[in-house]
Amino acid sequence: MDAVVLLSGGLDSYTAAAIAKSDGFVLNALTIDYGQRHVREVEAARAVARALGVARHQELHVDLRGIGGSSLTSDVDVPRDRDLSATDIPSTYVPARNTIFLSLALGWAEVLAARDLVIGVNALDYSGYPDCRPEFIEAFEALAGVATRAGVEGARFRVHTPLIRLTKAEIIREGLRLGVDYGLTTSCYDPGPDGAPCGSCDSCLLRAKGFAEAGAADPVITN
Amino acid sequence: MDAVVLLSGGLDSYTAAAIAKSDGFVLNALTIDYGQRHVREVEAARAVARALGVARHQELHVDLRGIGGSSLTSDVDVPRDRDLSATDIPSTYVPARNTIFLSLALGWAEVLAARDLVIGVNALDYSGYPDCRPEFIEAFEALAGVATRAGVEGARFRVHTPLIRLTKAEIIREGLRLGVDYGLTTSCYDPGPDGAPCGSCDSCLLRAKGFAEAGAADPVITN
Lengths: 223, 223
Known about the structure:
The structure is a homodimer.
Chain A: E1 2-6, H1 11-22, E2 26-33, H2 40-52, E3 56-61, H3 97-112, E4 116-118, H4 134-147, H5 149-152, E5 158-160, H6 168-177, H7 202-214, H8 219-222
Parallel strand pairs in A: 1-2, 1-4, 2-3, 4-5
Helix pairs in contact in A: 1-2, 1-6, 6-7
């Protein structure tokens, strides 16, 4: 059964895709180049797609720098060494990003006659982004039913979020069990010119915490 | 008060924007070049934005030909002289288009601290697209509340659809009353190389029917 999987080149989406594959889905990977400062993740997504053996890999470009509003899509500095237990939503939040991504995934799914979308959102070891929470996913599923021809004709779209209630360590353990090669992934929001992770953005901190708690070495760091 | 208005260069979105302006909104126009075969509507949108005196005009590009699935974004022929009373959804339906458009509008609205989106959808003299119906709009409003930082902080986004229950003739009469210059607009899905409307696609047929019933001349045809 075909599924459209949002694949960023990061750790979470690769793991979510590997879980979907092990559940029997045929993977159609969708990668969005949205003008993010860490655009090298698009290259990582290509390597991840190859490693996963996806049926199709579609890249779409939509330059969200035009609307800005995030330190990932503007010249505002990415926050460093932030307290991850803080409850405020940091400047790396990209307004409506997952709504935009899932909308594009929905369009492609309808073309492919797929009814299953997969997204690697996580509402536990995360930065507090509103569009990573279960209530967002449920609202999107409700929308998908009335937004599409397929929905009007009775199809029910499902948005699979296999990571949503896992800790980062649990995600990594599950990925390693499934043979995920985390050496292909990139998580840093603001890598150096050589692609090296900064080690201090939210995404680097969450990744390091995850590998530490999983008792595993991060191949990106140790290589 | 700022509003983000989806502006295509067609008749409906111009009229919806003119109504929003007359209601006192400051207009921030968003035009999406999505790889549509009638890309000349993007140029029309620029002229319309100038005529409306918008505060900002943002163009975003996202090439939906990558996912196809519509005669507007693939090489499939646009249907001609279709029976507009037919209840099937024609091939000009673009999967998830208005979901994608409203998602982008939502992102920009959040950046602008705007809470109002305007879209010229119409569920009466239309082609039966699912994402032009009130139930779609309501589901999107519900989604917007949980998808965004602003929503989490208590803001309520509203999607204004001033045309949704008007006939095409009523839309045109209201536009003319507000001083809309329909000579700036383009509706045809498949214009000739000189930009001339084909006269037989759904969009041309609905426009002609509207002007006829409004007892007005279409300046695009008579020029």
